[in-house]
Amino acid sequence: MRSLGWTRLGWPALRLLLTVAIVLGVFGLFLWALGKDPIQAYRDTFRLNLLNPRGLAGVLARMAPLLLTALGVALPFRSGLINVGAEGQFLMGALAGTWAALNLPALPWGLHLALVLLAGMGGGALWAAIPGALRALGWVNETIATLLLNYLAPLVVGYFVFGPWRAPELAFYPQTPEFPASARLPLWFGTRLHLGFFLGLFFLLAYAYLVSRSRWGLELRAVGGNPEAARRLGLPVERWILAAMVLGGALAGLAGITEVAAVHARLKLDISPGYGFMGFLVNWLAFAHPVGILVMSFLLAFIASSGFTLQITQRLPYAAVNVLMALILFTVLAKPLAREVRR
Amino acid sequence: MKRAWLGLAVLAFGWAAVAQPCLVVGMIIGGTKDDAGYNQSQYEALMALKAKMPCVEILFAENVPAGEAEAVLENMILQGAKLLFPAGFAYMFPALNVAKRHPDVIFMHPGGYMLANNFGTYFSNVQFAYYLLGVAAGLMTKTNKLGFVGGMPTAFVLGNCNAFHLGARAVNPNVTTYFVVTGAWLDRAKEVAATQALIQQGCDVIGSHLDSPIALAQTCCEAGVFFVGYPSLAVQKFCPEYWLTGLGLTWGDFFVEIAQQVLAGTWKPAHIRRGLEAGFLTLGEFGPKVPEEVKRVVLEYKEKLARGELQPFAGPIRDQAGNVRIPEGTAWGPLDMGKFDWLAEGIVGSPK
Amino acid sequence: MNWFLSWISGAILYAAPILFPTLGEVVEQRTGMVNLGLEGLMLLGASVGFSVSFVTRNAWLGVLAAAGVGLVANLIYAGLVVHRRAHQLAAGLALMFFGIGMSALIGKPYVGQMAPGLPKYALAGSQSLLFRYDPLVYLAFLLAPLLWFLLFRTRFGLWLRAVGESPAIAYAAGVSPNAVRYFAAALAGTLAAVGGAHLSLGITGTWSEGMTAGRGFIAIALVIFSRWNPLRAIAGALLFGGAVVLQLQLQAQGVGISPFFLDMLPYVLTLLVLLVWGRGVRHVAPASLGRVYFGTE
Question: Which of A104, A230, B124, C286 satisfies CB 3.0 to 4.6 Å to B280 for a cystine?
């Protein structure tokens, strides 16, 4: 586990702390300029979202989709692919999983849920396979294709939610019928914490193992690092490209279906407040490093959760946390990255 | 140093003890509180509650997407809320989930159809009163074409469009109503486009069921076409000249009633549906271009509605295909309003 | 015939607010920069434009202010990308979040208020309500050929494209890639914000949070659809505007159609364009798109 060694983590950790301190300072000034009390705002935010078990459970629940979408971006990233499409893969995963939840015959709890999650992964994987194949064939750049498919996905979901799958009894708001109990993810401790969080952790560990220990991880990195050399070494570069996209899409799709099966219990249009894009940023902030992904997804989940605290206690529009998020990103972006990791 | 902190803590505690509210009430809405529409009407009711019961502490969040509702409601409960108004259609299921986890907190949801031990619903009998707006429109139209812009093709929207049309036909049998859906509760640019499409179709009175018909009102003004307002009377100021009349959702007194029940421990879950007579709705002032005769007829219908002599959804009522949906001798009441998945005969447009 | 005219009339109106950001992004991408922050820039423009128009009671001052704020905001992006060599996609998304947040904060006091809108002038010969537009619509459609001329018929356009193709060669030829990119970013920020202001001051006459409803993203798709050509961007914007209006007009005539199908049209067509031209797109796309220029070390 050399790549996870603490010496390599010391500096990034310090830098992160410094960044957070700078940003909290700047945002505090910003709050102060708006006539708010920054100290009180921060105190409320920490008290309600970190120190309170229910609040913390809410942050962890929000972390689940971020972990999975970030991994969905990180895996292709390792092989040199930019997957901006986690948002679309998230939605298509939710769509495919919903199909399984509503259409499979009665099955025991564990089995049905497993099939629903698998279907969700399949939906995300298929959606990612399109840009993956186009890229492997050398036709279309995967950045462009994944980006475009992001905008198509909500329309496809909208078609089903407003059309064939719309629950007849829900006359007031277009959404599908409720998932049967056998297709729901369990929630724990009377809080919003759900199995998706542990799925996220599990896949994070699997990812850490894959990239640091396994032969697969090596080949993946070889393909990403220098495709020409990899090809000369006899590695099936095209197949690796497709596989990386498909696996990434499967993880983003899993994020989508866990979010639906745990939180909403029915498919509707507004299931994602941009989790796919946030996952992209998490991966980018973490530079595809497993520990970084863990820390950054927690940080972003915490910020997103704080937004409503600030709105309720400080009467700030929720969108103000977007400014906070942007400040963090600007601060990090303003620091040029070391050359060898740049791509 | 330690002593200073202690002093601060005592001060804070003392302040908290003095300002202890009698009840913490929370509300979330999906739009902004100044939208001259649905969200403003909810917010104004909350402010009326605060004005009449100053001991109440208010927690409030706007622009809350349905996917975030659970988190925000939990957040409000952490801050002591005991009565919550998840004031948007889409919040029913998220709020029910939260209600299950917090049996000691009471939830009042607008327009929902499910109940729990700590979860009740309220709404105005809008469809019945919208009939009056139809009467006004039917008397005012020159082209005999009315337009209706809906956010989404849901039962309440279809019901309002049907009521608008049926009211107009009651006074003007030649009326045709054109129904258009934008596909979103708030997309101003599309609302303008939809209104323009109706105006180009020849419609000269426009009704609507949107979160906030501000852009619609302004488009009507520009084209010199009448409109009726809903769900807040505040939209009047955006085009006073071509405002016919409108319906406002007015729940302030009801919120006070609920808060007092919660404090007294007498609150019970129920579907509460009331109309103009109970102050759940207010019929707006008439606009400057409305003739006295029209005002008289509309108010006459209003009286009849209040006395129960008028049943807007009394059969026979046929749908677009000519099938009888409400048979002769029967009438749909307030709890049937969620059943509309059809448009009445004489309406052009799709109910899907 | 009548409905056809009103369709075209509507398509032109709703094309304009997308055409502005699309044109800006075409120029920006021609110099090698992908900017995912258009949505944020448009929101900033819509919000600032409306607020300033409300305060000054002058819609033109609103448009001007929107343009200025868009320019400055996009210079943040350009500074990060060009000067600090930051990741373009991440910087763009950061800009998007910034725009969403700042526009909400700035516009908060002006929700549900009335501000003076832009005046409307009829296209020659039009008597009815059709073909009456505010000046920004005319400006959008004039800008497209102007920018085409700038890109493909002037020396400066050659520099722009050279920077997008190969910054090193451009540098060797005596062009400063960084200066060119700052210029392109300034232009793109201005145009995106003006597009947003057109939504709030020209079309709807109101401000509401998130009112661009994804139009900034559509613009990015249209850049690809137009294959980085300002003239073809007109076709793309008209296609999108036409789809919106057609869908509503069909409804008003009793033709039921899932709005999602028509909304999908621009994206599906863009994907088809990508597929049909296949490898060809690679030759059209600026070669250094998305890459960081490290100067000549």
Answer: B124
Among the partner-chain residues A162, A171, A268, the one whose CB lies closest to the CB of B341 is: A171
Taking alpha carbons only, the member of C57, C60, C40, C58 closest to residue C106 is: C40
The torsion of the CA quartet B105, B106, B108, B109, rounded to 10 degrees, works out to 40
How many C-alpha atoms does A309 have within 13 Å on its Cβ side? 24
Tens of pLDDT, residue by residue over C245-274, are 888 888 888 776 776 777 777 778 777 777
pLDDT digits (tens, 9 = 90+) for A111-147: 999 999 999 999 999 999 999 998 888 777 788 889 8
Interior CA angle at A84 toward A82 and A88, to 5°?
Answer: 140
DSSP result, C45-95 = HHHHHHHHHHHHS-HHHHHHHHHHHHHHHHHHHHIIIIIS---HHHHHHHH
CB C252 to CB B234 under 8 A?
no
Among the listed residues A201, A215, A264, A198, the one whose alpha carbon sits nearest the alpha carbon of residue A71: A201
Contact A190 B101 (CB under 8 A): yes
**Scanning every residue of chain A, which has its alpha carbon at the shortest distance from the alpha carbon of B100?**
A190
Domain map (residue ranges) of chain A:
56-276
**Distance from the B155 Cα atom to the nearest Cα atom in chain A, whole angstroms:** 5
pTM for the predicted model, two decimal places: 0.88
Identify the three-state secondary structure at position C130: coil
> Chains that contact B by 3+ CB pairs under 8 Å?
A, C
Candidates 1.10.3470, 2.60.480, 1.20.1250, 3.40.50; CATH matching C2-111+134-284: 1.10.3470
Whether chain A has a CB inside 8 Å of the CB on B335: the answer is no
Q: Which residues of C are less than 8 Å from A156 in CB distance?
A: 260, 264
Average pLDDT, chain A: 86
Instruction: Match 């939906």 to its residue by tokens.
Output: A123
- Indicate the residue of B26, B74, B155 with minimum beta-carbon distance to A54: B74
Chain A CB within 8 Å of residue B79 CB: yes
Task: Select the highest-mean-pLDDT range: A42-46, B260-264, C31-35, C171-175.
Answer: B260-264
H/E stretch holding B26 reads strand B23-28
Q: What is the DSSP letter of A34?
A: T
Whether residue B80 lies within 8 A of chain A, CB to CB, comes out as no
Q: Using one digit for the tens of pLDDT, what is the confidence trace for C157-188?
A: 999 999 988 888 888 888 898 999 999 999 99
ipTM of the complex model: 0.86
Across the interface, of C14, C252, C259, the residue whose CB is closest to B189 is: C14
Contacting A residues, span 96-155, partner chain B, CB-CB under 8 Å = none
d(Cα A254, Cα A119) in Å, to the nearest integer?
A: 9
**Partner-chain contact B32 C203, CB within 8 Å:** no
Binary contact (B156, A311; C-beta < 8 A): no
Site from B165, B190, B341 to mutate, C interface, most C CB atoms within 10 angstroms:
B190
Smallest Cα distance from C129 to chain A, Å: 32
**Domains detected in chain B:** 22-125+251-278 (3.40.50.2300), 126-248+281-348 (3.40.50.2300)
The letter for the amino acid at C18 is: I
Q: Which of C13, C134, C206 would you mutate first to test chain B, the one with the most B CBs within 10 A?
A: C206
Nearest-angstrom CA–CA distance, B325 and C144:
54
Rounded Cα distance between B308 and B302, Å, is: 10
Instruction: Select from B90, B31, B82 the least CA-distant residue to B58.
Output: B82
How far apart are alpha carbons A299 and A13 in whole angstroms?
Answer: 13
Q: What are chain C's partners, defined as 3 or more CB pairs within 8 angstroms?
A: A, B
Q: Closest Cα to residue B83, out of B263, B220, B244?
A: B263
Please state the rounded mean pLDDT for residues A11-17: 79
Q: Is B86 helix (H, G, I), strand (E, B) or coil?
A: strand
